[in-house]
Amino acid sequence: MGIVRAFHGIFGASAVKRKLLIAVPLLVLVVVAAWALRPKHESVGEAYISERSITLWSSVAQVREPVNTLHYGDRVDVMARRNDSVKIRTASGEVGLDRRPSTARAGPLEP
Questions:
Q1: Which of 1, 8, 80, 102 could in theory staple to 87 by disulfide, Cβ–Cβ 3.0 to 4.6 A?
Q2: For residues 1-15, average pLDDT
Q3: Does 20 lie in the same domain as 50?
Q4: What is the pTM of this model?
């Protein structure tokens, strides 16, 4: 209690209340904005692999691990597209990245 009493003695009780009236709504605003701008984990769309086979990677970094190998005609969910990479979820639920955005095309492929 000594710190609070000293703070009130230096700044006054009305100054503390005024600062709280500004700080609390500002904090609520920041929390609501962060929640509204959070990354969504929804699927962008359904696609099919258009290459003979592709390797699904764990990340786009140079140090990465292969997650799975996908083959022509495999159905995948496109989670996100960014620059030259595509985030893909396979039918078995594995999520990985491919650096060739043209490998996952929308709609069924003809044999």
A1: 80
A2: 61
A3: no
A4: 0.54
